[in-house]
C-alpha cells in the first residue's frame, strides 16, 4: 500500500510481495561476513548536511520511503542467519534511522532467537528512556551512536535541523550507562573544516564516562566520503591524512581509535548466492518507485518463495509503472544489490 507523505515522495509499506534481499533501501544486506545488515525503514527526520544517502525531509533526490512489515523482515533474517551457518550479528541500520521504525522492539525480540548479537545504528534522539529499556529487555546488545558534535549550535548545523538537541542525546547516553547493560559505541563522521575539534572532546567524554569498561572500542571515528547521491558539502581528505589524524588523536586522549575487523568480531562468512549475473535479462513486474528519482523497484516473475534466492531489482532510467511487466538487463550485482536497465 502506498501513501503520500509530501508532495514529492511516496511511503511504501513493504510486505511479502517484495523479496527482502536485493536493495540498499530496505530488507537484508549481506556483504559476505558474519554481520548481516537489517534495514527496517528508510525514514529519517534529520537532513544532515553531509548525509551519504540524502535522507530527511529536505532531500530533493528521494522519490520514496519505506517501512517493512516486521514478519517479512524477521523471516528474512531467520533464513539468512540459518544459511550462513555461523554466529551472526544482526546490525540494524539503513538509509534512514531505525529508531523511527514503529515495530523496533518486536523486531529485536523476534530476531534474538536466531542471532548472537544485535546492534543498532541510531542518533538516539527519538527514543525515550522507557523505549531504550524495552529494547534492552527484548535483546538489543549494542547501540552505535551517531553523534558528530558536542557543541549544540554545531550539532544542529550538521543535522540540518533546528530541533536536534545534542544535550538531550547526552542525557540519554547517561541513562544507558547508568541504567542498562547495553554497550555503546560513539561513531562520529570526521568532517574536515567542520568538526575536527569535536573529535578530541568526544575522546575525553568516552574516557570520563569509562565507556571502555563495556566495550574495547567505544569511539569509532568514520571517514567522510563523497557519494554520487549524497550531500557533499566538503572535499574528501585522503586516507593517509585520515589515519594520521586518528593516530595523533589516539595519543592525545589515550584511546585506541584504529580497530581491526577481527577485533570487532567481523569475519568472512558464507555469502548468499547471486541468482543473476551482470548481463542477464530478467522478466519482472514493476511494483513501486525506487528510493531515488528515476528508479523503480521490480520483482522477478519467477520466484522461489525464499529470500536466499529471490531478489528485488532496482530499474534505473525508465518510467515506473506499477504492475507493468517488462524485461530488465542486470548491470550490477555487487553484494547482491541488483541494478537493471
Automatic annotation (TrEMBL):
GO terms for MF: catalytic activity; iron-sulfur cluster binding; metal ion binding
Superkingdom of origin: Archaea
Keyword DNA-binding: no
A Pfam family reported for this protein in Swiss-Prot or TrEMBL: Radical_SAM
Keyword ATP-binding recorded: no
Position of the signal peptide: none
Keywords: Iron, Iron-sulfur, Metal-binding, S-adenosyl-L-methionine
Occurrences of domain Radical SAM core (ranges): 30-256
Gene3D superfamilies: Aldolase class I
Cited PANTHER family: MOLYBDENUM COFACTOR BIOSYNTHESIS PROTEIN A-RELATED, RADICAL SAM DOMAIN PROTEIN
Name this protein carries in UniProt: Radical SAM protein
Organism, as annotated: Thermocladium modestius
Amino acid at each position: 500500500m502506498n501513501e503520500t507523505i509530501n508532495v514529492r515522495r511516496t511511503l511504501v509499506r513493504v510486505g511479502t510481495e517484495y523479496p527482502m534481499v536485493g536493495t540498499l533501501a530496505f530488507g537484508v544486506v549481506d556483504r559476505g561476513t558474519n554481520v548481516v545488515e537489517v534495514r527496517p525503514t528508510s525514514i529519517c527526520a534529520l537532513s544532515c548536511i553531509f548525509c551519504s544517502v540524502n535522507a530527511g525531509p529536505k532531500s530533493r533526490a528521494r522519490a520514496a520511503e519505506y517501512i517493512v512489515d516486521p514478519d517479512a523482515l524477521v523471516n528474512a533474517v531467520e533464513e539468512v542467519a540459518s544459511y550462513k551457518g555461523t554466529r551472526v550479528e544482526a546490525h540494524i541500520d539503513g538509509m534512514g534511522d531505525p529508531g523511527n521504525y514503529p515495530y523496533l522492539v518486536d523486531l529485536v525480540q523476534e530476531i534474538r532467537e536466531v542471532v548472537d548479537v544485535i546492534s543498532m545504528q541510531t542518533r538516539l534522539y527519538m527514543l525515550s528512556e522507557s523505549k531504550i529499556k524495552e529494547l534492552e529487555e527484548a535483546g538489543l546488545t549494542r547501540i552505535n551512536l551517531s553523534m558528530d558534535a558536542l557543541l549544540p549550535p554545531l550539532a544542529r548545523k550538521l543535522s540540518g535541523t533546528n530541533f536536534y538537541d545534542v544535550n538531550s542525546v547526552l542525557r540519554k547516553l547517561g541513562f544507558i550507562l547508568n541504567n542498562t547493560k547495553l554497550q555503546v559505541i560513539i561513531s562520529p563522521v570526521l568532517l574536515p573544516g567542520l568538526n575536527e575539534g569535536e573529535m578530541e572532546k568526544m575522546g575525553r567524554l568516552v574516557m570520563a564516562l569509562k565507556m571502555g569498561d563495556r566495550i574495547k572500542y567505544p569511539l569509532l571515528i568514520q571517514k567522510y566520503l563523497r557519494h554520487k547521491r549524497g550531500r557533499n558539502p566538503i572535499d574528501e581528505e585522503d586516507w593517509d591524512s585520515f589515519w594520521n589524524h586518528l593516530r595523533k588523536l589516539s595519543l592525545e586522549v589515550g584511546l585506541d581509535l584504529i580497530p581491526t575487523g577481527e577485533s570487532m568480531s567481523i569475519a568472512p562468512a558464507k555469502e548468499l548466492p547471486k541468482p543473476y549475473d551482470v548481463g542477464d535479462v530478467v522478466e519482472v513486474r514493476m511494483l513501486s518507485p525506487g528510493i531515488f528519482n528515476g528508479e523503480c523497484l521490480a520483482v522477478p516473475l519467477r520466484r522461489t518463495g525464499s529470500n536466499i534466492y529471490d531478489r528485488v531489482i532496482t530499474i534505473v532510467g525508465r518510467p515506473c509503472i506499477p504492475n507493468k511487466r517488462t524485461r530488465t538487463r542486470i548491470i550490477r550485482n555487487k553484494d547482491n544489490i541488483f541494478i537493471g536497465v
